[in-house]
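Dissemination and training. As part of the outreach component of the grant, students in the summer workshop were shown how a complex can be specified as a set of sequence lines and then modelled as a single object. The example used during the hands-on session is reproduced here so that future cohorts can follow it. Participants entered these lines:
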Amino acid sequence: MSRLFQLVLAAALVATVTFLALPVLAIFLRVPPGDLVAQLGEERARNALLISLKTSLIAHAFILLVGTPAAYVLANRSFRGRSAVVSLLELPLVLPPAVAGLGLLAAFGRSGLLGGQLGVLGLHIPFTQVAVVLAVCFVASPFYFRSALSAFEAVDPALLGAARTLGAGPFRVFRRVALPLALPGLGAGSTLAFARGLGEFGATIMFAGSLPGRTQTAPLAIYDALDEEFDVALALGALLVLVSAALLLAAKLVPLWTRSNSPSTTLSVPSAFR
Amino acid sequence: MRSLVVVAALVALAGCGGGGEDDDLVVFAASSLNGIADEIDPAADVVFAGSNDLAAQIRDGAAAGVFLSASAKPLEELRDMGLVEEPVVFATNRLVLIVPAENTAAVTHLHDLTRAGVKLVLGADGVPIGDYARASLELAGLGAALENVVSLEEDVKGVVGKIALGEADAGIVYATDVHAADVRSIPISEHFQPKIRYYAAIVSPGSDGARRYLERLLGVEGEAALRGAGFLAAPS
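and obtained this result:
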């Protein structure tokens, strides 16, 4: 009986690995590496990659700039309804992307909640790169926010208190104590959020549309090229696999790396608080 | 391409009986014929998909008796390979201009599409509805309207959706695709209509069931079903 169980376990593992790895491998087996590079030189592939990179970077800057202080505040305050707020901020994680697209249209679309006010200011968001950036921010920021929140929560409050008694102002406490200690978690979250943003599809196609050279990101270009230029689709797909794999690796390595190099080690934090 | 797998699965299901026999006729029909091809003969199994995908399946030996295609090209290729009999036109369709119910951009004619600031949504390159729409704009000498395109959608649904939500000002789709209440359709002049024809052909070797299906499609049953859905009868 225990032998059978061992067999079942092994079979399950093999099935899982095969099932998850096969589609990824198949992409590379369909296109010879030379063609892959050539297809990426195509104008539509290049444009899509540039737009993806540009919108992802801008969105990511916003996510870090706003998400970091927001997570810091929430980590250090307790108030009624705090867990409700946290859950609300995590909701986009589990929301179907199509619903995210609908929500963005309902909020920022021309006939949306804020559409009238935005229109008065001469702002028309749908079908622009601003819309792509908003879609990426919406779906990707919770990935960062979650990591940032737990990273800040893991910082020993006693250390922050000690810094304050030694005369450090709130900003200095944040910058010199909390931020360096939370850095590994922030780095990992940041990488995952960037990867999620780069792959954004559903909310983007609904909210920003798909126009080559303007709002067509790499995932949208894959969808567009599928029926006619399958090789372009495969080449873009293969590149995204490589980028995603690199980001995943980075997300795993960044915490290890920062742990051994960050100034936090000089503070000799009890390991239980990491 | 993307629906090939689905088609293959459906064909596998539909073809279980073996095809060919009268009592289990399999009809391959373009997606836009949903609600029509299945009305002609309730006993027939109808597989709906993109015409190009269906043609690829027939090339691979799928057991279809009749093929209803939304354009001539896939059928002509099959005919030249000797896989189907001579295609016949059984219906035509028209393009219409669609605008949101509020029509804030005051689009009432194709010419309005070149006006600065009008947000136009079309089908992408290679997507039939997109290619037809571009052909129509070209016939009208309104190529400049392409400057106003804000999104190129992968299917008709994408175009209609953007208009129904009021996010874009105008789109061009088949007359038979406009069902939503919050979309207004504006006829496009006969002069600017590209030829949109639906072709039927019997897959070789033809069965009696396939011939009877085609007769019905070209007869009163077919006409009623097609007209009910907004298609026009074939030019005879």
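The longest helix of chain B spans residues 128-139. Students were then asked to discuss how this feature might be tested experimentally.
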